[in-house]
Amino acid sequence: MSNCPSGKSCDECRLEHGSQECKVHAALETIGRRYIVMSGKGGVGKSTVAVNLALSFALQGKKVGLLDVDIHGPSVPKMLKLESYRPEVSGAGKMLPAEIGSLKVVSIGFLLESPDSAVVWRGPMKISAINQFITDVEWGTLDALVVDAPPGTGDEPLTACQLLAGENAEAVIVTTPQQISATDVAKSLTFCRELKLNVAGIVENMSTFVCPCCGKETAIFSSGAGEELAERFGVPLLGKLPIDPIICQGGDEGTPFIRRFAASPTAAAFAKIVEKLS
User: Fold this and answer.
1) Which one of 34, 120, 132, 204 is least enclosed by Cβ atoms within 10 Å?
2) Is it the case that residue 114 has pLDDT exceeding 50?
3) Among residues 228, 239, 226, which one has the least CA distance to residue 276?
4) Pair 230, 196: CB distance under 8 Å
């Protein structure tokens, strides 16, 4: 028998013991659901959705991991007030993630000298780093792993999707209401189809604007992109999130809105999205 956590022999597993593929397989044995938050367009709020999704699961009492694979623009440390965190190494030689209650967090941002430092890497370096974030981190047993992917369909989302593939893996696609956003986001949905990755659904962010004075909601962008994409690709529309100052405030101050403003209409809207994913 091998020392794989799955308890399977190498013959049963059919992977070369000690190979990178074997290490990934062993690491995933202790991870339950996997949600890859992605989009074909930048600036649509992927990190906001990923962070609040992970925290929502943690507030339900689940053991959750949040993996930031946006190598060139990691924003998770700022959003969770973890910019000063520097990971230590466990006795087993693995990186220890930052912990916020039952939430474990890993980001390339933890390894940079300062938030202004640039990561100047080509594809192979990025692929290697994401592999190590799965295999060389002390994740322990998780009910869910939420992955914050950068925009597009390049090395980072491709690597994350291929590593985490399986019946427990799903994509959460984020868009904004404009048709120009939908054009790019449609590419992510096609990307998932080609990889045979199940799409849990679409989140339409910035759907309306909530006035901070009177609370009135106004559609300031052309609407319907999220619904149109969901209908065209035959996937669920998980919900719509407004442009709300509390979202910006929470992200800038490192206190995500799902925790600090749990009683707000925006948090209630997000809670319905989480309910559909739970």
Assistant:
1) 120
2) yes
3) 239
4) no
Structure tokens at 202: 């679409």
pTM: 0.91
- CA-based angle 84:85:91, to the nearest 5? 155
Per-residue pLDDT of 33-78, as tens digits, reads 999 999 999 999 999 999 999 999 999 999 999 999 999 999 999 9
Q: State mean pLDDT over 205-219.
A: 84
Instruction: Answer yes or no: is pLDDT of 201 > 70.
Output: yes
Share of the chain above pLDDT 90, in %: 71
